[in-house]
Amino acid sequence: MKKKAGTTKRLAAIAVMLLLCAVATVYILNLAHTRMEEARQAEAERAIAEAEQQAAEEAAAAEAETAAETEEASGVASAPERVYSYKGSSDDEAYTMAAYDHAVEAGSGFISMPFVVSGDGTLFVADSDESQGLTGYSGYFSGMSDGQIAELKTRGGADIAKLSDIVEKHGKNINYIIELKYTSDRNIQALEDFIKKNELEGNVAIASTYFSGLKTLENDMPDIPKIFLCEDDVSFGEALGLAQVDTISVKKDLMIADYCKMAHERGKKFGAWTLNTEDEIKSAIDMGVDSYFTDETNLAVGIEKN
User: Fold this and answer.
1) Domain boundaries, the chain
2) What is the pLDDT of residue 64?
């Protein structure tokens, strides 16, 4: 009887052990399966991440290549940022469409245009409201209609250029430095309307010898850079403390290292005008000026690129 009971207990113990082994086996198999699934999932996630990273890198490279091609086509990226083409390539062509075309062809990304406003409210490129200097005809552009101005020629035989024609031709491939020579409300309003109409806010800066005109434009168009064309030491000192002045561009005889340093210390950019010789341009570059106006774009661009 005792022998039979012992046998039963052993069989029960063996059964329990077998059951435990079975449970353990199932657990181990499930654990192994889970870990394999986790490994496969992790591997899949790594593959997806690598594919996404590669796709992002390829997209970025393609975007950069496209941007480079666009910039190369526009000429803006390769244009020296210091060079502001003022009159163009020669006195005979000064302030004409041909002058600015030649400056852009030479590699300039910034052209500077003084303007007058006709009796019809149109902006024309001219350095004075008196037409005598540019055309030889005695009169005032502000008192002429667009039709009357269209009949005039420059001393070199070119048409009087409209700012709108220049902007239409070159678009946003270049930048425009528009000089405010007359600060009447009419002229300032005409300039603001022109900038807004042509959507030039990102491609334009305003230059002037007058603080008052720059202040009005700072109030109306604070995001557009303002350049003060400085003619003497007193106005340089005043410009250092004015919020409406982003760049102080001095006559070349005021282009000295101390002034450049002072402007930079006060958070202003420093420029000069008008630099037309190799020595002047190299001196400006060595000094660390941020920009300079020149009538000799070919010369300036060549020096900058070399």
Assistant:
1) 1-74, 80-305
2) 54
